Structure formats: C-alpha cells, structure tokens
Amino acid sequence: MVPFFFVTHWALSVFFQSLFQHRYAAHRMYTMKPRTERALHLCTALVQGSSYLDPRAYALLHREHHAFADTAKDPHAPTHHRNPLRMMRETARRFEGLLTRRLRSEPRFEGGYPEWPLAERVFNHWASRVTFGALYTLFYVRFATQPWHWLLLPAQFVLGPIHGAIVNWCGHRYGYRNFATRDESRNSLPVDLLCMGELFQNNHHARPASPNFASRRFEVDPVWHALRLLSRLKLIRLQSSPASQLVPLPETTDSVATAA
Ligand SMILES: [Zn+2]
Ligand SMILES: [Zn+2]
Prior knowledge:
The protein is mostly helical. It has one domain. It has 10 helices and 2 strands. The chain has a two-stranded antiparallel ribbon. The longest helix has 25 residues, at 2-26. Residues 248-260 have low confidence and may be disordered. The site of one zinc ion (ZN) has 7 residues, from α1 and α3.
C-alpha cells in the first residue's frame, strides 16, 4: 500500500506541476474559464500538499530560466554548480525571495500567471505544509508493513523540490539533443513517465511555446495527451499561438533541428 501511495503521489504531483505551474502559469499554452482555473489550481494545491509550488513564483523563476538558460543568470544551471543539492539550495533561495516579494524579477517576466490570494495564503503557509506532512505520516503509521517503507516518507514531504532537482539537473546534463539550441538542454528519457514530459528539456527549449514536449515519433509526453483530452472535453482551449512573448528566448538561441 505504501509504495503504491508513494508512486501515485509522485506521478500526480509532477503531472500537476507540468500541467498547471509550468505549461499554464509560466507559458500560457492554453486558456480556460476562471472557474476551471480555480478548480485546477485547487487540485494542484491538494495534490502537491506539503510541497505546493506557488504559481506566480514558479512562473517568474521559470521565465528567468528560459531567458538566461545555462548562463550565470540562470536560477538553476547545473553547469554553474558542483552538485544538484547546491543548485537547488540557490534555486530555493530565489524562489522564496520571489514568493515573499523580497526579490523582484525583471518587469518583462511579470504578469499572465494565475493569482488567487486566498489559496496562496493558505497553501503557502507552514501550517498547511505541516498538516499535509502529518497526514502522510498517519498513512504510513496505518499502512507501512516493512521498515524500508519509512525511507520513502521524507521524500514524500518534498516531492516538488525533488522533481525540480531531477528536471533541472538531468535535463540540462544527460541525454540526447534533437535541436541545436545554444543552451545545454537535453532530452533525458524518450518515454518520460518519471517526470511526465518535463525531461524533454531540449525539445522544450527549442520550442518553448509548444504544449507538446515530444518532438520525434518515439517520444512520449504524457501531459500533452492529457491536454489534448481536456481540450476535446472543452475544459481548456489550446492556444494556436501561445503567449511565447511571456518567455523571451535568449538572443543567441538557435533552434535549428539537427536530428528531427
Ligand atoms: Zn530547462
Ligand atoms: Zn518552460
């Protein structure tokens, strides 16, 4: 029961991160009615629980990443850090600064992300994070049958940062390239069930406005298929020309396909 809970929570957390914080809040790859946006926001917060990521802070940080990918101004460039822990410590510091508005992003990165002050106040609060952590712990108390099950619990508290570390580190370090972008982005897995399509960093940096992160026939991006289903159900409207101006490309980017 515990491994099933862990795997399901892992998959759903990164699924909503890719669907809501990344493809909607940061990139505006689709639009939806305000009520649907609230429902999706609430689902995201409940699923991510103790490691809920504020959509505004996520969008600002992520737009900075696209604009300055793998340069000294990138909030999480693996080339500028000795290990993933150091990289994520710096990333967390900037995220926290943007969240509390102690740090400001450039004006060009502002706007176009969902804002819901009540939900943000509740789900960003430490009491909410501790409550979710306590609920996970109660589940383990009730259902853990093997000592090693307990090793999974600390990871479950911080799934969001773990997904971030995997995507930001591996996606700009390990894997193959379809496009000759000037950054170090890579496609780490051809079928990305581990991070729900987020590990197609090279495809995504080459085409940051495309809601489909897969580019070649053998590549599978699960969130893209979910978006197509939501679109068919008329819950969202995929943008024919997404607001890519929200994520300015670095001036030196050269998105020439080399293998596609
Ligand atoms: Zn990237
Ligand atoms: Zn992106």
